[in-house]
Amino acid sequence: MNNERVNNIVQIDKDIANKLIRAYKPEYSVEEIERFTGGKSTSNYKLKIEGLDLELVLKIYPRNNDVCEKEFAIFNKVREYVPVSHIYYVNTEKTIIDKNYCIMEYLDGTTLDEYIEKGNRFSEELAEEIGEKLALIHQTEYDMEGLLDNKLNLTEGLPQILTWYEYFLNGKAGKRLEMSTINKINKFLENNNKLLLQMTNRSVLAHGDFRPANLMIKEDKLIGILDWEFSLSVPCYFDIGQFLRVEKYVSNEVKSSFIKGYNNIAKYPVTELWYKLAKLMDLANLLSLLDSEEDKPNLHSSMKKLIDDSLKYLINA
């Protein structure tokens, strides 16, 4: 499991934490502060409030990142049908620190990746529940692919996904891949235009980072879907591919139960080619992660391995 971050950690001490929490509740004092080790973009802290049986989450967004309000809007939209933390307070003033932040409900559970790594069985029942919740998220449709503003309306700035492969292969990602891998990708794309069109024929509200690390589990139940700052309008296979990316987490039984749950609820159930389409979509995502300006040895090594595995499946399926 690769834990290399996309953005640097924002380090704060108890004094700063108190200033941030008191902008929300002037009477609160932080007794203990603990940084969560998970998360690759935002910096997240658990705050124990002095004199109260209360723990909260302080979420600090990267500099120049204005998605705080968008995440708040999404939480309010989806909380009626999928489990999410309650966001109590959003601060975009950047007066205490030069970043946006929010105060959220603390969910007492374990992320799905940690749950599995600790030896717990990923049950078919849990996989089916996750599939059902993802299908509910995907009920919201958009006319085209795109980024979302803080009112969840489409904005410009997202190139068509069908252009991602060529774009990233001609960029930093291509420079980090073996030429033999690039040739295999290009040959597969040339021979599977119908598959690409089928993959992108409908756009939905997607979580955008639907990995096991963002699914909170307790007693074999899904109690929270975390980190919605990357949400956008894309094909449903965007989320499905991310969820099933790491093969060691998902047995064939889990895959079958997941897609059974998804199709039970989905407005447009996926076809028998769903897994191949998800792998093809995730290949574009993996190339984007390999395309960072900064060298990230651990992350890039993991992405190249996943690209090789995805490509092997796509060619042989």
Report on this structure.
- With 317 residues, the protein is an alpha+beta fold.
- It has two domains: 14-106, Phosphorylase Kinase, domain 1 (2-Layer Sandwich); 111-316, Alpha-Beta Complex (Aminoglycoside 3'-phosphotransferase, Chain: A, domain 2), CATH 3.90.1200.10.
- Helix content is 40%, strand content 17%.
- It has helices at residues 14-22, 68-78, 112-117, 124-137, 164-169, 172-176, 179-191, 193-199, 237-243, 252-265, 274-289, 297-316; strands at residues 30-35, 43-49, 55-60, 87-91, 101-105, 110-111, 141-142, 147-148, 154-155, 203-206, 215-218, 221-225, 232-234.
- The strands form four sheets. Strands 1-2-3-5-4 form a five-stranded antiparallel sheet, with helices on both faces. Strands 6-11-12 form a three-stranded antiparallel sheet. The chain has a three-stranded antiparallel sheet with strand order 7-10-13, with helices on one face.
- Strand 2 and strand 3 (55-60) form a beta hairpin.
- Helix 4 (124-137) packs parallel to helix 10 (252-265), helix 8 (193-199) packs across helix 11 (274-289) and helix 9 (237-243) crosses helix 11.
- The longest helix has 20 residues, at 297-316.
- It is globular and about 65 Å long.
